[in-house]
Fold these 2 entries.
Entry 1:
Amino acid sequence: QAKEMGRNNYQFYTPTMNAQTLRRFELENNLRRALDRKEFVIYYQPQVEIHTGKIVGVEALIRWQHPQRGMISPAEFIPMAEETGLIIPIGEWILRRACAQNKAWQDRGFSPMRVTVNLSARQFLQPHLPQYISNVLEDTGLGPQWLELEITESLAMKDVAFTEKTLIELRKMGITLAIDDFGTGYSSLNYLKRLPIDILKIDRSFIHDLNTESDDVAIISAIITLGHNLKMKVVAEGVETKEQLMFLRQQQCDLMQGYLFTKPLPVRELEQKYLSNNTKLFC
Ligand code: C2E
Ligand code: MG
Ligand code: MG
Ligand code: MG
């Protein structure tokens, strides 16, 4: 692009590039330092069975507790971590941490539940991922049935042969597999049918617009039917209102996650509010 702009723009263009390179370099350093200084924290958001109100799992969601800037959301740094490759050590930390945490909860006598970990593209594409995960389960002592892994729909459909091979390996290990943000990518239903997926998570944008956009009613009910026909459980993400929940219940959606039940919580708060008294009825 610099060439197209011509020689005259050379001096104008260089400083911009340097500033960008510098910013990236700084951010990369900051992320690396954050990992060393243990500035990442995991919040957990319950996944609740709609017809019983029981918590069956928690999704691990990373935050960056920045010493100056406060709590930074994953949307702000995961893309950069992905680009720089730092997502690999960060992702390994999350996986290990979440598994160890779930094992600790079980050891303390809380009702067993799954912990769900999001896998980024780079992480998922690592050739030895299943072996790595197997090591983490062995090291932490967590049973594979208590771990769930999420990949997004668009990642799952990127290289379907690779996805299929990897998911089959993970499934053989006894891990639960979910497709995240379903409905925002372009699934080949033929491939979806072949993949050993246990759970479809309806993207929260569909739930959000439920009240205003009647198209979403049709889309949600189609996704639920599709999931059930493929023997999958369906999770609705981002449920915020009773009306949304009532609709989902009526559509026989299996599970929900959302602010209506609770926002993602730090460990201590989750334990106090929900784990010591698992069965919690709502609505
Ligand atoms: P996601 O995996 O789809 O996670 C769901 C997001 O929806 C979370 O945002 C959660 O806080 C938010 N959410 C849950 N219920 C509601 C609700 O009722 N209303 C609204 N408005 N939002 C709700 P969060 O924690 O900011 O994470 C955003 C995204 O960042 C995640 O989307 C995921 O793609 C990524 N992410 C988070 N943690 C990790 C991680 O440990 N590893 C990787 N690779 N990605 C992560
Ligand atoms: Mg997720
Ligand atoms: Mg999602
Ligand atoms: Mg998402």
Note: The pocket of magnesium ion (ligand 3) is lined by residues 180-181, 201, 203, 237 (CB under 6 Å).
Entry 2:
Amino acid sequence: EKGGYDHFMLKEIYEQPRAIKDTYRGRLLADQGLIRMAGIDLNMEKFLNANRIIIVACGTSWHAGLVAEYIFEDLARIPVEVEYASEFRYRNPVITDKDVLIAISQSGETADTLAAIKLAKEKGAFVFGVCNVVGSSIARESDAGAYTHAGPEIGVASTKAFTTQITVLTLMALKLAKAKGVFSESRYHEYLCELETIPGKVEKSLESNTLIEIIADVYKDSTNCLYLGRGYNFPVALEGALKLKEISYIHAEGYPAAEMKHGPIALIDEHMPVFVIATKKGHYEKVVSNIQEIKSRKGKIIAIVTEGDEQVKDLADHVIEVPETLESLTPLLTTIPLQLISYHIAVMRGCNVDQPRNLAKSVTVE
Ligand code: M6R
């Protein structure tokens, strides 16, 4: 049932090219210049007239929500707030019938997320669910929604659910950008075509697996790790750190790269591995200067870079390449090596990768 892989997590990491394709199959019609999503088409007015979009989720799904915040604001020019469902539901939030709430949940059963959507519905907001499990409670409670179609995710550490959530949310943002008229025909077309290349580029990113295993062996005994990224890749840094924490039990923190100098830089010495996402698009030069700051404090740098990068190669201790793509699509690629590094470190430390201690696949109690 693990399809020849040692663990479900590894199987699910490798399933991502297919899972992403399944997510956009029948929706992304690049040759017709069309994205078809019934849940959006039928409720277009709700989205276009919304004052703002509120995204609620927990854990990895919350990280997908953060990526979506960048995508929706950047592409569709709709204001977005991203909330932990557990905080949102208890802080007497201001919600009106002009709000659209998007709930993101792999399982569709997370108690806090479910409670958050019930609250939003009571206040008259329109609720859109992005779930993986068909017929789940959140899917049923939502006014409309879009499934991720990632297939069953068994490993407690979420992998393919994350990249397929980002895929669905990207399709939604593109559709709204087009409907709002903020996207030219040619830009829209460029995005649709580029999205179609993503499964192949994820495949390519997975080819770094052997290199990543070697890197994992170097850092497997670390007690702390930092993860840094900017812009679209800031949430990816958070997600990379969460993945390492939950399956290898190594303390890890994700930060926006520029925040490093407001505190975490004090932690950096020769024993601190720092994973930095430094893809060519999006504040590249600024990330390079962050890398220089880490280097001058003797931190160990593992950089995720765009294929062919030369500048970071000279500074970093290790570089892992991912193919080039549009900036807003980079999280779909930069996530892959971070999933693999966590996986290999956890295996080397003898941890129970698929069922880490103290964790459940779906958190149905608050
Ligand atoms: O099923 P959900 O997406 O609602 O679950 C949310 C979190 O519990 C989940 O993402 C959790 O953080 C994972 N273990 C992360 O790998």
Note: The first strand starts at residue 28 and ends at 29.
